[in-house]
């Protein structure tokens, strides 16, 4: 019994570490106007408070996951947590623009290093499928609810104290989490640094991912179809192709291409990239709609998203594991995306000035249901075929596709929404109508992305069934 309790306590520690990182991604958004006022940022300069974190985080996840496999995941998790907490102190103490941007970059490195190995550690802690589904449900809830917690906490702290304290609150939480992690998490031995020390490959993929995320986040200033974006995108692609060639030929690849022979790994990462676009796109656009069209303040925006967190909590923690055990992860993935499609369609066709109770409450609750069914199921599928020695890498890969897919999706949706709003203004619409029109168009595109996600999920489900039939036929033949 003690052993069982210690596993769930270990999960709690891992989830708390991840909660710090997820909350930090949204808590800063609410404080941006105050940071701009205090440190004298320009509008484009202010974007770097977010972008510096995103570039380091998105660029290093894959490398951090592999390092966890090589030197031990507990060690990597603790190192990342320590770096994240120290960087939070630097962020809070920042008195100039360069200091805050540099501290946010270091914070992104710490966030990537600690979060890259978490899924792999959960896989090791819970080898039994039903318990693993429940553990992934709790993790998925933390990942999603953290964003809402960040919005509410950001509004509360910025309004009542100052923006510096949105970073200082990480100190006691980070220290306590690190102490508990050092005590509760089982020590693990990595497969050894000699088994995968492809330094050049690591530099290539990190540079490619960082440049890729940088290119995406800069599109808000330069546009998706500018010469600058095209050149940087081309360099990113060249780096990625060179990296793949090296992985195919190298002796100790950092990303063994054998991982992609599994349809589950390949398909689930495509689904993750598409899903991140639709879900993150929804929250980003919805925050803007609540603020600029509906006239909500920071606290009201955070509270408006509560139905998503509450419903997602209920299903992630209570029902998802039971449903996955009964119907299978593939079917739950499809069901969750179908529910998300309904939610996005409802907001896309809603009125400009929405009554929250009439027009927004049900879609938000449905989106929470869709997420609560989808995320645990997808994580289970992604990690199902992976050997223990590659679990950290697969965990980092899933996080990377989510981050890069989400960043790219946000850039595309923001560009489309902006272009649509400009067209409406030229056609004689007032500012609020034009903004709302752009946001509704972005939701419609998000719904289209969910349709594509459903297509990939259906293929994944079908291929799993074919594999099961082939395995059963081979077993029957062997028995005969």
CATH fold title of the largest domain: Growth Hormone, Chain: A
Number of domains: 3
Helix segment tally: 17
Helix content: over 70%
Strand tally is 0
End-to-end span in angstroms?
43 Å
CATH architecture of the largest domain: Up-down Bundle
Write the CATH homologous superfamily of the largest domain. Answer: MFS general substrate transporter like domains
Largest sheet: none
Uncertain segments:
none
Give the rounded overall mean pLDDT. 84
N to C succession of SSEs: HHHHHHHHHHHHHHHHH
Rg value: 22 Å
Structural class of the secondary elements? mainly alpha
Q: What gross morphology would you assign?
A: globular
Q: What is the name of the CATH class of the largest domain?
A: Mainly Alpha
Strand % is under 5%
Question: Can you characterise this structure?
Answer:
With 480 residues, this protein is mainly α. The chain is 85% helix and 0% strand. The chain has 3 domains: 1-195, Growth Hormone, Chain: A (Up-down Bundle), CATH 1.20.1250.20; 198-251; 258-480, Up-down Bundle (Growth Hormone, Chain: A). It is built from 17 helices and no strands. Helix 1 runs parallel beside helix 6. The longest helix is centred in the C-terminal third of the chain and has 49 residues, at 431-479. The protein is globular, with a radius of gyration of 22 Å. 51% of the residues are buried.
Short description:
85% of the residues lie in helices and 0% in strands.
Task: Summarize the topology.
Layout: H1 2-39, H2 43-71, H3 73-93, H4 97-115, H5 118-125, H6 129-160, H7 165-168, H8 170-184, H9 199-222, H10 227-249, H11 263-293, H12 298-304, H13 306-327, H14 329-348, H15 356-384, H16 391-426, H17 431-479
Helix pairs in contact: 1-2, 1-4, 1-5, 1-6, 1-8, 2-3, 2-4, 2-9, 2-16, 3-4, 3-8, 5-16, 6-12, 6-13, 6-15, 9-10, 9-16, 11-15, 11-16, 11-17, 13-14, 13-15, 14-15, 14-17, 16-17
């Amino acid at each position: 019994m003690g052993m069982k309790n210690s596993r769930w306590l270990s999960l709690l520690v891992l989830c708390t570490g991840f909660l710090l990182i997820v909350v930090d991604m949204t808590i800063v958004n609410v404080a941006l106007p105050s940071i701009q006022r205090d440190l004298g940022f320009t509008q484009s300069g202010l974007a770097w408070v977010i972008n510096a974190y995103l570039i380091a985080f998105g660029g290093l996840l894959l490398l951090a996951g592999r390092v966890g496999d090589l030197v031990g995941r507990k060690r990597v998790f603790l190192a990342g947590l320590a770096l994240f907490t120290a960087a939070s102190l630097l962020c809070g103490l920042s008195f100039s623009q360069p200091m805050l941007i540099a501290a946010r970059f270091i914070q992104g490195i710490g966030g990537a290093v600690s979060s890259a190995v978490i899924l792999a550690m959960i896989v090791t802690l819970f080898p039994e499928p039903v318990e693993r589904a429940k553990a992934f449900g709790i993790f998925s809830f933390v990942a999603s609810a953290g964003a809402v917690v960040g919005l509410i906490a950001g509004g509360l702290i910025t309004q009542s104290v100052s923006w510096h304290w949105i970073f200082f609150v990480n100190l006691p939480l980070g220290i306590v989490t690190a102490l508990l992690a050092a005590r509760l998490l089982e020590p693990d031995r990595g497969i050894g640094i000699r088994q995968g020390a492809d330094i050049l490959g690591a530099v290539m993929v990190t540079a490619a991912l960082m440049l890729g995320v940088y290119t995406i986040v800069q599109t808000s200033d330069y546009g998706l179809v500018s010469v600058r974006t095209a050149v940087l995108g081309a360099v990113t692609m060249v780096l990625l192709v060179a990296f793949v060639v090296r992985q195919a030929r190298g002796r100790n690849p950092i990303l063994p291409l054998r991982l992609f022979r599994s349809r589950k790994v390949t398909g689930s990462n495509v689904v993750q990239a598409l899903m991140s676009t639709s879900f993150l796109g929804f929250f980003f656009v919805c925050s803007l709609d609540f603020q600029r069209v509906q006239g909500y303040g920071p606290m009201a925006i955070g509270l408006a998203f509560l139905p998503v967190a509450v419903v997602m909590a209920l299903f992630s923690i209570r029902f998802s594991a039971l449903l996955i055990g009964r119907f299978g992860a593939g079917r739950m993935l499809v069901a969750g995306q179908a529910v998300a499609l309904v939610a996005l369609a409802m907001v896309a066709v809603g009125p400009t000035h929405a009554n929250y109770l009439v027009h927004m409450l049900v879609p938000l609750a449905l989106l929470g249901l869709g997420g609560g069914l989808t995320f645990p199921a997808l994580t289970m599928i992604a990690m199902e075929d992976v050997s223990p020695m590659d679990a950290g890498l697969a965990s980092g890969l899933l996080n990377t596709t989510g981050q890069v897919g989400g960043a790219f999706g946000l850039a595309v949706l923001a560009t489309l929404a902006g272009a649509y709003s400009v067209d409406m203004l030229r056609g004689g619409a007032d500012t609020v109508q034009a903004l709302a029109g752009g946001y509704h168009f972005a939701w419609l595109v998000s719904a289209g992305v969910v349709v594509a996600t459903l297509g990939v999920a259906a293929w994944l489900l079908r291929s799993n069934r074919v594999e099961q039939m082939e395995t059963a036929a081979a077993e029957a033949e062997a028995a005969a």
